[in-house]
Write a structure and sequence with these properties.
The chain is an alpha+beta fold. Helices cover 37% and strands 30% of the residues. Strands 2-3-1-4 form a 4-stranded antiparallel beta sheet.
């Protein structure tokens, strides 16, 4: 399992529920299309966490790099439903940071 991590802050902290709904719509769309296995949205609690990592943490699970590539390719089209859903998420965030990790040891 590969896990794509995104840490970010909100441009407008009052839109936390709208952000959560936008993330759900976007990632559920990818899941329904078979481009991801699952996802989670987490929020920093009590302000604890490393500096610069953002208040929100999105974890996107894929079976392998090929599946992740399908999700990236869909987003890169910048058209149709994927673009509308992506824009609803991306337009709300700032200070985004990204990482990619995998299960270890390999299974």
């Amino acid at each position: 399992m590969d896990v794509y991590h995104i840490w970010c802050d909100l441009r407008d902290g009052r839109e936390d529920k709208a952000f959560a709904a936008a993330v759900a719509a976007y990632l559920d769309h990818h899941k329904a299309g078979g481009r991801i296995v699952g996802w989670r949205l987490l929020r920093r609690k009590l302000g604890l966490g490393p500096d610069g990592m953002g208040e929100f943490h999105i974890m996107i699970e894929t079976t392998d790099m090929a599946q992740l590539d399908k999700a990236f390719r869909a987003a890169a089209t910048r058209s149709g439903d994927v673009e509308k859903l992506h824009a609803a998420v991306y337009s709300r965030v700032t200070n985004a940071r990204f990482a990619l990790a995998r299960d270890f040891p390999d299974r």
